[in-house]
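Sample pair:
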Amino acid sequence: MLSKMLHNPIFVVVRNEGYPFLSPRLEMMGYEIPESGWSPDDSFLKSRIHPDDRVVFDDLLTRLFHYLTAIPDGQRRNYKYIFELRHLGKSGEWTRIVCQLQILDFSALGNPIELGTIDISPDQTPDTGLRFTLINIETGEIVPFEVNDNSENSLTRREMEILEYIDRGMYSKEISERLSISIHTVNRHRQNILKKTHSGNAREAINYVRRLGLLS
């Protein structure tokens, strides 16, 4: 009903379990909604978040979970958390969006069930990182919550260079010779790339970075 009433995309996510509901309006933002209308992969919406903002987003969600689970059951619905971050739009350009989440309940596995809405941010400053606000909607209080700096989690110029060579089919030995660095250094960069892009292998990292428009 809420999805039909509002013009902005709406979703329901169960942390670590999936999306029981995805509004068809998400297609306007570049998402391909599964025919069933839901996704078992709870990283579905995260796939189009800027990689720098994605690391901060994941860190905030983890710390929020611990913060909210320490609050009495009857008070958890009083909190709304608002993210303003960079999102890869349907046109292939970065757009700043506002994503609001609020806990509805907890699943049988103890994971939060959250209602989320997405809207376009009035601030379209392209280089601004993630912004976050935690609000107690019962009292109107804005709860102080630290946003950790993400600069150390961005892919460096060297890591992007190595990723491009990997995409061309070059092995670590070839890359080390091309860049005049040791194979150990190349492999260390490769591990950092996988960690920063949340990927299981180089091909996943390449696809992830290319999907975000950072690799031609």
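The longest helix spans residues 51-69.
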